[in-house]
Amino acid sequence: MCDAMIEVRDLRKSFGSNEILKGINMTVKKGEKVVIIGPSGSGKSTPLRCINFLEIPTSGTVKIDGHYFAKPNEKLNEKHVAALRTEIGMVFQRFNLFPTMTALENVMAAQMKIRKKSKEAARETAEKYLKKVGLAERMNYYPSQLSGGQQQRVAIARALAMEPKTMLFDEATSALDPELVGEVLNVIRELAEEGMTMVLVTHEMKFAKEVGDRIIFMDGGIIVEEGHPKEFFHNPKEERTKTFIKKVD
Ligand code: ADP
Ligand code: MG
């Protein structure tokens, strides 16, 4: 047993000659909720993408539950990556549901393809998680027949159906009409209360204060400041943090 769920050590990432992550260190304990905030382009998404193998770090390491997940420049075969990725659920701004599949089929697909579950088992799990996100009545609808908030809840159910150890949310509500944000935040809040380990990038400051055990503020590819939400928002230490908080308040 290991106390840390996610351990990121000196993570650096360059695109060409442009170093956009300049040494990120982050430990997320089991059950902890960490919220990353910061201006657009500050490098909030890239650490999540490295954690989930969507990017390979230029240097540094990522460990999940004590196992190395990402090592610099290591060529990982696709099967290996797919297996490791199931340990981590990720929800993006764009839901990326398959348009020709119903909600139920969307949530079943990866379970069968990657987890090699039977159709019956995948259906049972899909139903369980669609109910959990409040879509019991919408399982047989196609994405085009669902609102943005409902589609994002399908995407959350799809991630949960893989029974991941940790969830990453990258601006999960940023593409939604304002009146649909609440229903998605409620689902995330409920998961948080159940003890899911999670890292969230969000612009919803009120939500960050409520749900976060810790706030990380990034700017220019580094962690400028981090702390408990109360301390962080009421008593920020760095000038850059103060300026940012004033702007988003
Ligand atoms: P944030 O999520 O805070 O908006 P990102 O982590 O997405 O920031 O990106 C940080 C910087 O890295 C941005 O300037 C972005 O343009 C750049 N960047 C991100 N992904 C790529 C890529 N695949 N190729 C080149 N530049 C990228
Ligand atoms: Mg981003």
Automatic annotation (TrEMBL):
Chief localization: membrane
Domain of life: Bacteria
Alphabetized UniProt keyword annotations: ATP-binding, Cell membrane, Hydrolase, Membrane, Nucleotide-binding, Transport
Localization per record: Cell membrane
InterPro entries to which the protein is assigned, alphabetical: AAA+_ATPase, ABC_ATPase_HisP-typ, ABC_transporter-like_ATP-bd, ABC_transporter-like_CS, MetN_ABC_transporter-like, P-loop_NTPase
Domain ABC transporter span(s) in chain numbering: 6-245
EC assignment: 3.6.3.-
Membrane topology: Peripheral membrane protein
UniProt-recorded Gene Ontology molecular function terms: ABC-type amino acid transporter activity; ATP binding; ATP hydrolysis activity
Leading EC class: hydrolase
UniProt name for this protein: Polar amino acid transport system ATP-binding protein/cystine transport system ATP-binding protein
